[in-house]
Amino acid sequence: MPDLVILRHGQSTWNEQNLFTGWTDVDLTPLGEAEARAAGELLGAGGLDLRVVHTSLLTRAVRTADIALAAAGASWLPVRRHWRLNERHYGALQGLDKKATAERYGAEQLTAWRRGYATPPPPLPDGDDRHPAGDPRYRDVPAAVLPATECLADVVARTVPYWEDAIVPDLLAEGPRGGTVLVVAHGNSIRALRKHLEGIGDDGIVGLEVPTGIPFRYRLADDLSIVSSGYLGDPEAAARAAEAVKHQAG
Questions:
Q1: pLDDT above 60 (res 248)
Q2: Burial class (CB in 10 A: 0-12, 13-18, 19+), 140
């Protein structure tokens, strides 16, 4: 029976400042580093047979995985990184304060951009330095595939193929390769995975909030249907942290 653990990165510097981050590459805060260590301690104490890790290409996820694995005593694990696990691209909103954006455009419009399933924010203008086409980590990705903005439906469309092509084979591996798969990603790429895994509808996914730094574990049957799921550690603390995410935009 394979296990899948999904972990959102620890608090980033732009989480702390309540800014739209998206594909902007920012680091962890000291609190984010502490969250990553705490997550690793939960992984180490959870009786999990960790075998492989998948992360995005963004520093906050990469460092969360490194810190968590060190705390779990598993720094030697193989790690696969891919842009398809990146956070949702927030387009021209990237770098803007969430509460100030709500005051400027109204709470209804902000909710549509931030949590609507099929409503992307305004795209980056042509030639904007924030476009990922100029970032060397994406040099092997076709320019036409790289986003200037995304809605959650776009994130689902790019994340599910990675799930099927890369994560599922690790979950189904037998012998020495078999065991628990850890995915360290972002709020919206995790929402995309959970939507697919749990069969959450387009409307229902709007209400799913993902706290930073708390591992979420799935026990899966051999056909990868869900046997059980839940946060490691204190479920009430996870619920409080998710509620705090909900109110970031005021």
A1: yes
A2: exposed
Kindly state whether residue 232 falls inside one of the protein's structural domains.
Answer: no
Alpha carbon distance 184, 216 (integer Å): 10
pLDDT recorded at residue 178: 61
> Model confidence over 3-57: pLDDT tens digits?
999 999 999 999 999 999 999 999 999 999 999 999 999 999 988 999 999 999 9
Q: How far apart are CA 7 and CA 190, in angstroms?
A: 8
Say how far apart CA 148 and CA 31 lie, in whole Å. Answer: 30
- Domain CATH for 141: 3.40.50.1240
Total count of domains within the chain: 1
Q: Looking at the annotation, which residues are catalytic?
A: 9, 87
Q: For the ranges 53-57, 135-139, 150-154, 177-181, which has the lowest average pLDDT?
A: 177-181
> Which amino acid, residue 126?
D
Asked whether residue 164 is domain-assigned, the answer is: yes
What's CA 30's distance to the chain center, in Å?
19
Give pLDDT tens digits for 224-234: 999 999 999 88
The Cα 154–Cα 121 span in angstroms is 12
Using an 8 Å Cβ cutoff, are 9 and 182 in contact? Answer: no
Residue 239 in any domain: the answer is no
DSSP state of 212: T
Count of residues for the chain?
Answer: 250
Give the separation between CA 59 and CA 68, rounded to whole angstroms.
Answer: 14
Q: Which domain holds residue 77?
A: 3-184+216-222
pLDDT, position 175: 57
Per the CB < 8 A criterion, the answer to whether 183 and 220 are in contact is no
Distance between CA 26 and CA 214 in Å, rounded? 19
